[in-house]
Amino acid sequence: MKLQPDDLYSHSADRKRSWFIATLLLLVTFITVYISVTNGTFDMSVLDVMRTLLRIDPSPAYDLVVFDFRLPRIVLALLVGFGLGIAGAVIQGVTRNGLADPGMLGINAGASMAVVLFMLLFRHTLELSGWLGYMAMPLFGLAGGMLAVGIIFWLARSNGRLDPQQLILVGIAVSSGFAAITLYASLKMNPNNFEAAAVWLAGSLHSANWRYIGATVPWLLLLTPYLWYRSRMLDVLQLHDESALSLGVGLGRQRRQLILAAVGIVAACVSVSGGIGFVGLIAPHIARRLVGVHHRYMLPIAGLTGMLMVVLADLIGKTIFAPAQLAAGIVISLIGVPYFVYLLFRSRA
Fold first, then answer.
1. Most CB atoms closer than 10 Å: which of 38, 104, 212, 283?
2. 275 versus 161: which is more confidently predicted?
């Protein structure tokens, strides 16, 4: 098919708009990071931060605050938000359901269940040292996420095909079942481990460290370019199944590959940040409003939107309620639940 001049103009306009929106999101994210790294119980000026980062007359107190407390937390929030935003956009694209989300479909719950079971059964019995110990949690999270996806897709099939209408109901039911198992496993822990698991399940980033970041980065570096490369296939999957099949697309294989990649990102994020929900639901909707429905442009914007959401929620949670701290997952849920109800009523209209 030959491209028309109007098609080329529209493509160029979409690309310019996506670059402008991406620059704007990065600017707002940078401002949020600046506030987060300079404010807190121990206030620091920009000059103090720059001197610490550039190793100009370093101070042990500043090194501790920047490199051990604030910077790992901020970087992990950026990575987790970016990953959840992209994964949510992919899942909504594969299922053709704007209400689909890693949390709603039970992927978060499955990954959380597997990680909690790992913490209960194997953390103190297996001798895992170095990077193997930190990579084990994402691998367990991946197994739990894939288990959740397998069960949900199996139960939500109608006449051999995935029924988007049943997907949300089945996902909520499976998520509730996994949550019950997670709660039971956490109650079997000793008080110290139970407290740590409860904080982790709430989606707190206060225990962030550089090894958690190192365990998350490989998954994002490997799977994000792959999903962006497959963005055209996500556009094709928006067609009705009959239309996609007429183009020679193997729907089952394509959906499995894309879902597997999305689950890998979600599992890596959940294993280091806990149950941060609604990012994968809200970020893709905002991205569509900003740059349209083409996944080539929408996926990066969804990732940047999720990145801003998590780092901003973490900043709110540790400053607004100071000296107490509220988990980033709880802050996002306070916004996400009303937004989900709004989308639910809007889809019925």
1. 283
2. 275
Q: Which of 199, 197, 205, 201 is nearest to 311 (CA)?
A: 205
- CA end-to-end distance (rounded Å), the chain: 37
Lowest mean pLDDT, pick from 73-82, 131-140, 284-293: 131-140
Residue 181 has pLDDT above 70, yes or no: yes
HEC string for the chain: CCCCHHHHHHHHHHHHHHHHHHHHHHHHHHHHHHHHHHCCCCCCCHHHHHHHHHCCCCCHHHHHHHHHHHHHHHHHHHHHHHHHHHHHHHHHHHHCCCCCCCCCCCHHHHHHHHHHHHHHHCCCCCCCCHHHHHHHHHHHHHHHHHHHHHHHHHHCEECCEECHHHHHHHHHHHHHHHHHHHHHHHHCCCHHHHHHHHHHHCCCCCCCCHHHHHHHHHHHHHHHHHHHHCHHHHHHCCCCHHHHHHCCCCHHHHHHHHHHHHHHHHHHHHHHHCCCCCHHHHHHHHHHHHHCCCHHHHHHHHHHHHHHHHHHHHHHHHHCCCCCCCCHHHHHHHHHHHHHHHHHHHHHC
At 241, is the pLDDT very low, low, confident or very high (cuts 50, 70, 90)? low
pLDDT at 165: 66
Q: Rounded CA gap, 299 and 228, in Å?
A: 7
